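FAQ: What does the model actually see?

It sees only this:
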Amino acid sequence: MHAEKANISDSVELWIDLRECAGLQMHKDSIQRRMSEAVLPIHYLANVMNPKYVGRRLSSDQENQAESWFDKQTP
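And it is asked to produce this:
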C-alpha cells in the first residue's frame, strides 16, 4: 500500500491481494490462515461500508460475518 492513510477496510483488500498474488500461490494456505487470524468481522463490515470497496471482493461467508457482527452491535 502506497497511500499515506489506511483504514481497516483497506486491510481486507491487502489481505485479499496477498492471497490472490500469483507469485505467492505456494503460500496461499498460510496466507489464508493468517488472514483468518488477523481479520475480524468488523474489518469486513468496514470494507462493505466503504464506498471505494462496497464489499465487492468479499466471499458470502465474509459478508455474513459482517452482517452478523453488525446485528449484534445494534439493539
